[in-house]
Amino acid sequence: MTVNNKMKHWHKVAYLLVVYDFITVVLSYFLALWLRFDCQFSHIEKTYLDMYCKIIVPYAAFTVIIYLAFGLYRSIWRFASFFELKKLVISNAITLFVNAIIINAIFYFISGYRMPISYIVFGIGFQFFFGTAVRFSYRFILLLRDNRAVDAADVNVLLIGAGSAGRMILRDVNFVKGGANGSAKVVCIIDDNPNKWGRYIDGVEVIGGRDKILYAVEKFEIKEIYIAIATLAPSEKRNLINLCKETNCRIKQLPNIYAEKAGIVSAGNLQNITIEDVLGRDPISLHQEDVAAQLKDKVVLVTGGGGSIGSELCRQIAKYEPKQLIIFDVYENNAYDIQLELKRKYPMLDLVTLIGSVRDARRIESVFATYKPNICYHAAAHKHVPLMEDSPCEAIKNNAVGTYKTAYAAMKYGCDRFVLISTDKAVNPTNVMGATKRICEMIIQTFDSMVRNHTEDKLPVLITHQLDMDFDESDRVPAGSAHTEYVAVRFGNVLGSNGSVVPLFKKQIAEGGPVTLTHKDIIRYFMTIPEAVSLVLKAGANASGGEIFVLDMGEPVKILDLARNMIELAGLRPDVDIEIQEIGLRPGEKLYEEKLMSEEGLKETENHLIHVAKPLKFDSEEFIDDLSTLMSLAYSNQAPEVVQKIRETVPTFQG
Questions:
Q1: What are the residues facing 186 on neighbouring strands?
Q2: Which neighbouring-strand residues pair with 159?
Q3: Hey, where are the domains in the chain?
Q4: In 262-295, which positions are buried (b, 16+ CB within 10 angstroms) versus exposed (e)?
Q5: Is 425 a residue of the active site?
Q6: What per-residue confidence (pLDDT) applies to 471?
Q7: Is 524 helix (H, G, I), strand (E, B) or coil?
Q8: Are strands 580-582 and 523-524 parallel, antiparallel or unpaired?
Q9: What is the 3-state secondary structure (H, E, C) of 66-94?
Q10: Considering the domain 289-496+526-553+595-649 in this protein, what is its CATH number?
Q11: Which of 40, 106, 271, 578 could cysteine-pair with 513, CB 3.0–4.6 Å?
């Protein structure tokens, strides 16, 4: 084995510093003595000079030992900071004490003389100056070099926020590495606190509040804007971003408050503005204690658990420590992805991942029979509007019949709660997808009514995929034996979900356009996936059975504005760099989404943003007969007849 005896570079630096410190300590106290006697060497009294010569060498050696004990020869001086300065101060305080009290006292008792006070004061001053100067000079030179690079930067930056996060961003850009892209310089700061206006942070002026943004961009030729306010509410952030967007500057922001709390804020932490930031919905505040109480130590099943809503359901459920979480999905890749994620984040979670279809009655019944889930969140569904217009039979098989079979299995095997994920497209539906989701809501209402009235024995059993409904009388649930509570949760479009317009627009922008818009006046309600899921969990916790929960989704968003915002966020210009084309409404699509039917009315819950719709009344037995016919037609693949029967089953269907 070969040993590398070559001396490391920092060792050489340390030895040189030892020599330097020894020499400068000797020099410091000679200069102090020289100053004491009017800078005339010949005026120095022999008694003091002899005492200096006797004291200085042991004292210099002692100083080097103290510096060594405090690690002042092991620091990386290009990163010298207050920490090293503090160690220098403490080390010099110790040597001052030893020199002024102990050494002087010893010599006084021996010779009857002591060194002048001015000698000690000036000596320690020179010692500290020389020790600090050499150690911080390297960093000072680097800062001068970086400042020259920053002064030559071709990207002027406006920083919004003069708080602790803003200060860290400023220093990282201007003094550490010359900006996140190596050519940026913060030239001015905006902050809404009037007390900071006209004052400076590291030489950069706080020029005023947000009303000065446009002025600053023009005066300082700003190319980029960094938003460094960690505690900004979503609605405030939206307004600030919209103001910044008027400047055509590139906008970046802090990811969240946690980076600042962890002390890791830097220019590299900044993220691009997202469409969620532009929409700026204030998050719904929900007290989730009841959700935690309901889910803890329970067996929970999520159908469609690999989808955008289903996977987020699994993420949030896992936080509440269920006894067991079962992911059920027909698409194995999605199920595998969420399985890996949850195993990594929650290694102690009892997680079961199953592949299967809700259309398969025997498969779904075996899941309920084996695992006996206490709560079922039913997110499995076909949701793509144009595709379901072309395949109405599949929409009935998966959405309507799949929901029926899952709801029946839940009732049969003693599930306590069954929560259906519905959509605002079920309100006065104009397309097959929305109409089948309305049928799902009607299924939930039917099951709830039958269970409450102890007539669950009238519900037929769907056990095969045969053309006709296959009833097995021995498998019927006996009257009065079920206790499952059924509830539906209705919300609008979810940002980033599978099939939503946002991923489509992103792809079209990345390809250089055009961005295709079905109609310039089309509007939609949007919410984030975590918001949607928190509502679902809240509904599951608060349900008493039969309700349709509706979220107040705020103001509708014009899709044309959404497209323009996304193009601008990509640093491009709408209708200049990226064309926006109007291609006409797709089959089954409507201009305006409705959150609930006018006949349903609303009842407020404890949260003013969450409401309960009063369900429309219908004949349950007639509905079951209609569903039987729909299933028969769907499995016979008679698409026109299926659409016609949907119209008869859902009176509000306008397709």
A1: 157
A2: 189, 226
A3: 9-147, 153-273, 289-496+526-553+595-649
A4: eeebebebbeebebbbbbbbeebebebeebeebb
A5: yes
A6: 44
A7: strand
A8: unpaired
A9: HHHHCCCCCCCHHHCCHHHHHHHHHHHHH
A10: 3.40.50.720
A11: 578
- pLDDT cut 90: percent of the chain above it: 21
pLDDT value of position 144: 61
The active-site residue, picked from 223, 397, 425, 538, is 425
- Which of 287-296, 516-525, 640-649 has the weakest average pLDDT? 516-525
Which amino acid is located at 194 in the chain?
Answer: P
CA–chain centroid gap for 125, Å, is 51
Residue 256 pLDDT > 90: no
Q: At what angle do helices 104-111 and 46-69 cross, to 10 degrees?
A: 150
What whole-number distance in Å separates Cα of residue 649 and Cα of residue 425? 16
- pTM for the full predicted model: 0.63
Q: Which residues contact 337 (CB under 8 A, 6 or more apart)?
A: 306, 311
Q: What is the DSSP string of 583-635?
A: --PPTT--SS--SS-TTT-EEE-SSTTEEEEPPPP--HHHHHHHHHHHHHHHH
SS3 (DSSP) at 159: strand
Distance (Å, rounded) from C-alpha 369 to C-alpha 354? 14
Quote the tokens at residue 461. Answer: 């059993």
Fold classification of 153-273 (topology level): Rossmann fold (3.40.50)
Q: Tell me if domain 153-273 and domain 289-496+526-553+595-649 are identical in fold.
A: yes
Asked which of 60-64, 272-276, 619-623 is least confident by mean pLDDT, the reply is: 272-276
